[in-house]
Amino acid sequence: xxxxxxxxSFASQDQSKAAFFLQESATMTAxxxxxxxxxxxxxxxxxxxxxxxxxxxxAARLAATGHFDEVIEAIDSMLELLKREETKDLETKxxxxxxxxADTRDAAKTSRTIDELTDKITRLTAEIADLAKEIEEKEAxxxxxxxxxxxxxxxRDKEHGEYLVAKKDDEDAAEVV
Length: 177
Fold this sequence. Notes:
This protein is mostly helical. It has a domain at 30-92. The chain contains four helices and no strands.
């Protein structure tokens, strides 16, 4: 039934008046032109703000061709690239933060060690100064003892000489008696 109806319909139409559905040209409406210009301007502004030459190229292609398909594909591929770069940047950031935290811990540990060693050096320096003073006092004491010993020896020698003289006098006196 339906076939017969279509056959009759096509047969009744004059072949010279038949409509062809071949698009020979395309025109954009005013609103489409405004949207395209707006998109081009937004891309150019974004390119200037980010200093990204890829956005400038996309804007130039959009302005030149007037077709959105290529531009949309370019934007999609750029978004994919930016997502990959974002992932890579995030990994780099995490690595940097991890390294920085480790370096901070090492610096704090090293700082504590330096503080402990500085305290030890200060304590040992004070101890060395005390010992040097004690050595100086002991050396002065030894020098005084040597001086006293020398004087005592002289006195003993003198007294021994006097003793010998007195003894000789006593012996001579004993012989005389």
